[in-house]
Amino acid sequence: MRPLLLILSALSCTFAQENADRQWYKGNTHTHTLWSDGNDFPDSVVDWYATHDYHFLALSDHNILSRGERWMAMKAIQKRRVTLGKSTLAKYRQRFGTDWVETRGEGDQLEVRLKPLAELKKRFEKPGECLLIEAEEITDSFEKVQIHINAINVSDVIKPQKGRSPRETMRNNLRAVQAQEAATGQPILAHLNHPNFQWSLSPEDLAQVVEEQFFEVYNGHPSINHLGKPNRPGDENLWDIANTIRLVELQAEPLYGLATDDSHNYHGGDASPGRGWVMGHAASLEPAALIMAMREGAFYASTGVTLNHLDYGMASKAIRFEIEPEPCVTYKTEIFGTRRKSPNLPGESLGVIEGLKVHFPMTDEFHYIRATVTASKPHPNPSFQGQLSQAWTQPIGWKVSP
Ligand SMILES: [Zn+2]
Ligand SMILES: [Zn+2]
Predict the structure, then answer these.
(1) Which segments of 46-95 are extended strands (E)?
(2) Rounded to an integer, what distance in angstroms lies between the CA atom of residue 350 and that of residue 371?
(3) 295-311, pLDDT tens digit by residue?
(4) Counting ligands in written order, which one lies closest to the CA of residue 38?
(5) What gap in Å lies between CA 164 and CA 167, rounded to an integer?
(6) I need a surface site. Which of 134, 198, 233, 338 has the fewest CB within 10 A?
(7) What is the separation of C-alpha 124 from the centre of its chain, rounded to a whole number of angstroms?
(8) Measured in angstroms, how far is the CA atom of residue 390 from the centroid of ligand 1?
(9) How far are the Cα atoms of 135, 208, 338 from residue 193, in angstroms, in the given order?
């Protein structure tokens, strides 16, 4: 399933050289537009990200790809607004001009055409600078359990697959993603979204469905219960529990964590863009290169902290990076991991490192280690009260038996 991992150690001599040719790219893989339940035009949404230093963006509407001809009533568009102010159409015309904006009908019957991804790609994409990746949020459920999986770089829509249990539903959708990848040869990155949304999925669910390699350790939607509640772990804690079950009991590879926006609202109000993103270290700004990098663990999740010289990958010998400083901001890095002698204590805090340079060696004492960096700087657009800017590295130093 992850052939690259198998050959990584054999290539370790050349790997450092290959890494030197890579660049860091910033991206958001979870975004909604008027094509499903977002409240702005897809081109306005892309424009927001393109003008806020993002290199790649996946528009991931619910169970739909932005293809074909689609017109939407202006009345319905305006109803999506959670705040008043200049109309969505007026903002759209102001930004793109009347030549680009297509309308038909008048008054109450006025409709606006939603641009398909192919047209957005022509307008916005620039090699090495701006990439749009076709994506979908496969939005499924089992009874009241919400199972949402983003499929990034799809070549056709994937219908929710359903199942007889939450785990089977997860598995069926992931297998549909794998089947499309196998049929087309086009790599697809699937990530499980917001496990605590409506308290849907347990750490055991995440652990047991080993087809899943990625999940959202942070999602910017305010309703996803990021911090958990008494007797329900928050997203970060859930990650450590699931990974410990995988490594100790299942001999399965750990989950990697993404931060995403899950943005819906672009005119004020909550679920707004710019809250969480990934930084991927890839050979080029192309879908296959980014996905390959992420499958190797060559990325980190961020809500506002930038890391330099990050050591990554399953075979890394240490958590090692330098934090890019900002004026008047201090940083604390907490190292988490599970000790071999105490697997019943998943994700123990193994130490806190203050300052910009972080180095924590991996030893045989641990199943894996990872780091969370927390800045003294409040998040500029928080999704929960008291949120500070953070970054999460991927688990390193882990092994699974063949
Ligand atoms: Zn969702
Ligand atoms: Zn979503």
Answers:
(1) 56-59, 71-73
(2) 10
(3) 999 999 999 999 999 99
(4) 2
(5) 8
(6) 198
(7) 21
(8) 22
(9) 14, 16, 24
Question: In 3-state terms, what secondary structure has residue 55?
Answer: coil
How does pLDDT run across 32-91, given as a tens digit for each residue? 999 999 999 999 999 999 999 999 999 999 999 999 999 999 999 999 987 778 899 999
Residue 30 CA, ligand 2 centroid: distance in Å: 6
Alpha carbon of 282 to those of 80, 211, 257: distances in Å? Answer: 37, 23, 17
Three-state secondary-structure class, residue 113: strand
Which residue reads 């958001």 in tokens? 28
User: How many CB atoms neighbour CB 401 within 10 A?
Assistant: 4
The pTM of the full predicted model, rounded to 2 decimals, is 0.94
Q: What is the CATH number of domain 3-70+115-392?
A: 3.20.20.140
Residue bearing tokens 């890494």:
19
What distance in angstroms lies between residue 137's CA and the mean position of ligand 2's atoms? Answer: 6
Instruction: Report how far ligand 2's centroid is from the alpha carbon of 402 (Å).
Output: 35
Q: What is the pLDDT of residues 87-145, one digit of tens each?
A: 999 999 999 999 999 999 999 999 999 999 999 999 999 999 999 999 999 999 999 99
Q: How far is the CA of 271 from the centre of ligand 2 (A)?
A: 10
Q: What is the mean pLDDT of the chain?
A: 94
180, containing H or E segment: helix 166-184
DSSP symbol at 192: E
What DSSP state is assigned to residue 379? P
Alpha carbons 284 and 127: distance in angstroms, whole number: 9
The alpha carbon dihedral of 145, 218, 190, 127 has a sign of: positive
Instruction: Write out the two tokens for 191.
Output: 């990530």
Question: What mean pLDDT comes out for the span 229-247?
Answer: 97
Q: What pLDDT, on a 0 to 100 scale, did the predictor assign at position 18? A: 52
Kindly give, in sequence order, each residue whose CB lies less than 8 Å from that of residue 187, ignoring residues fewer than 6 positions away. 153, 181, 287, 288, 291, 292
Nearest to 41 by CA among 87, 82, 84: 87
Residues of the chain with CATH 3.20.20.140: 3-70+115-392
Nearest listed ligand to the Cα of residue 193: 1
